[in-house]
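User: Second chain of the day. Same drill as before.
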Amino acid sequence: MQIDIIGDIHGCFAEFEELTKKLDYSWETGIPIHPQKRKLAFVGDLTDRGPQSLKVIEVVWELVMNKKMAFYSPGNHCNKLYRYFLGNKVQVTHGLETTVAEYMALSKDEQHRIRNKFIELYEQNPLYQILDQGRLVIAHAGIREDYIGKNHSKVKTFVLYGDITGQKHPDGSPVRRDWAKDYRGKATIVYGHTPVAEPRIVRNTYNIDTGAVFGGKLTALRYPELTTASVPSSMPFVAEKFKEID
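Assistant: Same format as last time:
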């Protein structure tokens, strides 16, 4: 199984296209296809904050739902957009406002089409991916070893938001435990959610959210090679978004 796992895109479509081309994917058909039939996988948070969230949804839907050539599981921003599209009351903040602005600029027919595609993408894919006969797990904010294979509410909270304590940093962001330091499992876990300046490799876990939407990089992890590739972001650099992890 040969997979290229892409970190949090957050609407940075240009970087997504550039990164896949760097990984030898061709866009001749309008979606990235690899000549050796490698597949893409996404750690979630396709949308919000970046300039082209809806275009990212279109391509990922085509790859995952239509062509069956990629793997997707949601992030917390995907979950919030899903609830917004269902008509639930959510705060249109923390990046969702950029996706909603794109959406509201569309015609009613186009709104209906993109909404249905995203709802289908969200509902028809698992909370996290267990691939390569259990040797690879892709989960948005990571996953504890004892949670793998389970889907109860605590697992969902962990996968979408990380190992949160309920406390807040001075900037209002949640305090999270560093679950990766305690991981002892055999499966390789690939995740994102918490921006890091460089891919963070701890105990067979790989955080590949290198903050593309905050002016860092968009990163992919190649599996089973376990090598990374990145492209620089075109977005303004926001230093405070890259928290130091002890």
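The longest strand covers residues 217-223.

User: Great, on to the next one.
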